[in-house]
Amino acid sequence: MTGSARWAVRLGALGLALAVWAPGAAAGAAPAARVPDVLRFRVIANSDSPWDQAVKNAVRDAVLARLDPALARVRTTAAAERVVRSRLASIRTAVDAVLRTDGAPYGATVRLGPTLFPPKAYGTWLLPGGDYEALVIRLGRGAGHNWWCVLFPTLCFVDMGSGLAVPPPAPRRPAARPRPAPVRVFWWLPDWLIGWLARL
């Protein structure tokens, strides 16, 4: 079997497996997409007023300034969680300082623990919905739009136009023909199917 024919068989088998597996997963017959091992960050604004959204962004910046230097040295999600947990008091102090400086008439809650997230795109990364370990800061009533990012591995770069977390821009290079960026998708296949495909 030629290389191209082998890949055609693999892709055909993969497509058939997904077609069979997807309806069962939707009906609860198979596990949902596996949640990747990442540490996430969420700031929930008091409201959607421009002022409250500005306070949310100021809190975000203050917390990232406290965490970024320490998280830059860690190599695992578990180590990142330990760093954040050890700095929860410092994070609360930073949040309170922002609220006090801006004259916000409300307080904040800060917690680290399992948090339910919907599916989310970060640039070319797609994260499935599910429970993630996350640092969550709720400002006041927590009735406004959120700001989310991934603390580890670090994806907390800010697109100020859209408010989305995106990877950092690539360094400028001489003009070249643009190519579409590959999309990385976290998904799940049974171990027996992965082994069978590898033997083709």
Estimate percent helicity.
40-55%
Q: How is the quaternary structure best described? A: single chain
Molecular shape: globular
Low-confidence spans: 3-31, 159-178, 183-189
Taking strands numbered 1, 2, ... along the chain, how are they ordered across the largest sheet?
A: 2-5-1-6
Tell me the span between the first and last alpha carbons: 10 Å
- Tell me the Rg in angstroms: 21 Å
Count every helix, treating DSSP H or I runs of 4 or more residues as helices. Answer: 5
DSSP, total strands? 7
Strand content: 15-25%
Briefly note the structural class of the backbone: alpha/beta
Mean pLDDT: 75
What series of H and E elements makes up the topology?
HEHHHEEEEEEH
Largest sheet: 4 strands, mixed
Description:
With 200 residues, this protein is an alpha/beta fold. The chain has a domain at 39-152. It contains five helices and seven strands; from the N terminus they run αβαααββββββα. The chain has helices at 3-26, 50-71, 77-86, 88-102, 191-199; strands at 39-44, 108-117, 120-122, 125-127, 130-139, 146-152, 184-185. Strands 2-5-1-6 form a four-stranded mixed sheet. Strands 3-4-7 form a three-stranded mixed sheet, with no helix packed on it. Strand 3 and strand 4 (125-127) form a beta hairpin. Helix 2 packs antiparallel against helix 4. It is globular. The chain starts with a helix and ends with a helix.
